[in-house]
Write a structure and sequence with these properties.
- It is a single chain.
- The chain is α/β, with parallel strands linked by helices.
- The chain has seven helices and seven strands; from the N terminus they run αβαβαβαβαββααβ.
- It has a seven-stranded mixed β-sheet with strand order 3-2-1-4-5-7-6, with helices on both faces.
- Helix 2 crosses helix 6, helix 3 packs antiparallel against helix 6 and helix 4 packs across helix 5.
- The longest helix is centred in the C-terminal third of the chain and has 20 residues.
- The termini are far apart.
Length: about 260
């Protein structure tokens, strides 16, 4: 009688065998089943505020950028209400500069979609505005917030990204990332993992660029813990986790990442 698989063993087995919905990258050589990219990909991440993309999936974005793919981070807002004692304009200027610094570390271009921190809305005009940004980029894949979240801006960013992607032709692959699971993202059950062991220190640097948000503190309190936990699930040292939306996609991993 065979020994039952633990969750850790099951994830390692699926990563090694290329079962759809799982992904491992990096030194373990577990991504052999992923399709090669015939051309540089257009990779987009849509986040609600400066520091959300960095928290949720900057390790994956760093890996894409390092392999020559074009990475764009679209911030729905400039974090206008994110610095106590500062006016909206003052906070927006500071946090936009921090976002630009983080994107330089990632190897990405920063774009701002024009909504306001604390008042982001899922409306047709806002979807169309985001859609125009995405249409200019023509992304091959998009990363966005998991929609079930305690922060309404995160929800708005997720829904706007989803609807904007639906209007694109061809439609990009869509992956949802987590932010502070438990306290913000809720009910997040990943089906895709990315090994970020080799770039986890660079991800930390991207977070540290957000000085006004105590990047060091949020790394230690939240995202170092999450990276370690997802790594344990995937059988690697550090990982990021995603929910792949597109049911028609049956690739073993994210496209174009070796």
């Amino acid at each position: 009688m065979s020994k039952p698989l633990s969750r850790r063993s099951f994830v390692k087995h699926t990563l090694a065998t290329g079962i759809p919905g799982t992904l491992a990258l990096g030194t373990l050589g577990l991504n052999a089943a992923a399709e090669p990219a015939a051309r540089p990909l257009q990779v987009v991440c849509v986040g609600a505020h400066p520091d959300d993309p960095e928290s949720g999936c900057s390790g994956t974005l760093i890996r894409y950028a390092a392999q020559g793919h074009a990475v764009t981070v679209v911030y729905l807002t400039r974090g206008e209400r994110g610095i106590p004692g500062k006016t909206n304009d003052e906070a927006a200027q500071i946090r936009s500069q921090e976002a630009a610094a983080a994107c330089r570390i990632i190897g990405a271009q920063a774009v701002f979609a024009g909504q306001i921190d604390g008042a982001a809305e899922f409306t047709r005009p806002n979807v169309e505005k985001l859609g125009k940004i995405l249409a200019e980029i023509q992304p091959d894949l998009v990363f966005a917030h998991w929609p079930i979240d305690t922060h309404m801006d995160h929800q708005a960013a997720s829904l706007c990204a989803h609807r904007a992607c639906q209007a694109l032709t061809p439609k990009p692959r869509l992956y949802f990332f987590e932010v502070n699971t438990g306290s913000q993202s809720q009910g997040f059950t990943p089906n895709t993992y990315v090994d970020i062991t080799a770039v986890v220190d660079k991800k930390k640097l991207a977070l540290l660029a957000h000085v006004s948000q105590d990047g060091e503190g949020i790394w230690k309190q939240h995202h170092e813990v999450i990276a370690d936990f997802r790594g344990r699930e995937a059988g690697v040292k550090a990982a990021e986790a995603f929910v792949r939306l597109n049911r028609e996609v049956q690739a073993a991993g994210l496209p174009g990442v070796r």
